[in-house]
Write a structure and sequence with these properties.
76 residues, mainly alpha, 3 helices, 67% helix, elongated
């Protein structure tokens, strides 16, 4: 997949479109999701409950979504 040029309106619009994954992308998304779930499972008991833990979980989710977006958008 060609990377959209985010410096243009057309590229930014393409970046925000839904990109149906092909079989290779599905495997990549699954691996990313599994890795982030593993991280949560491995550190869960060491991070105290509270707002910091919530921020940690939300930050991991954001990073996971960004990784999956990069896969969907060819690295952009």
């Amino acid at each position: 997949m060609n990377q959209p040029d985010l410096r243009t309106k057309e590229g930014a619009t393409e970046f925000l479109n839904y990109h149906a994954p092909d079989s290779d992308a599905v495997k990549c998304h699954a691996a990313v999701n599994e890795a982030f779930q593993g991280l949560i499972k491995n550190v869960w008991e060491y991070v105290p409950d509270g707002p910091g833990k919530t921020l940690f979980i939300r930050s991991l989710n954001r990073a996971r979504m960004d990784a999956n977006s990069a896969i969907a958008n060819g690295g952009a």
